[in-house]
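haha ok so turns out i had the wrong file open the whole time. this is the CORRECT one, sorry everyone. sequence first:
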Amino acid sequence: MPEGDTLHRIALRMQPLVGGLVEALSLPRGTQPTAHLVGKRIVSIEARGKNLLVTFEGRWVLHTHLRMNGAWRLRARDDRPLSSRFPRGTVVHLATATHEALCTNAPTVVLARAGSLRFDPLASLGPDLLADEVDLDAMVRRLRAADETPIGLAVMDQRLVAGIG
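then structure:
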């Protein structure tokens, strides 16, 4: 299972998409419409625990969780037209003028407005130890509140400390 450090590396590798205008976005296995995001700017790509969040203009967020077998791949775009055929298991195709990203085999793919009820599971995440600004006091408070839980299990509880287990 990709851990938090892997998601932070993926988010870092995908930074070339940030600032670009969406030329194509499709969720081949999903039923959520995506056409309204074509022409919108990609505002940020960040990892939060084991979740990858791609934020677009208009406060839309694409949330993926890779679980055991998911992966994100990024490549520079060349002169070939975008394909409408994707590798087996593709759940997200995202393209700007300069780059193209594919997410495969991720069981969690949600496109929603930031702050909507669909993001409640993220609200319960503990501090992400790999975040640029981690709240160590909050992490210690959460771990102390779970004083009956062995430390090895506590650090793997995403509600206490995000991204480890």
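The beta strands are 24-26, 42-48, 51-56, 60-65, 71-76, 90-95, 99-104, 108-113.
again sry for the mixup
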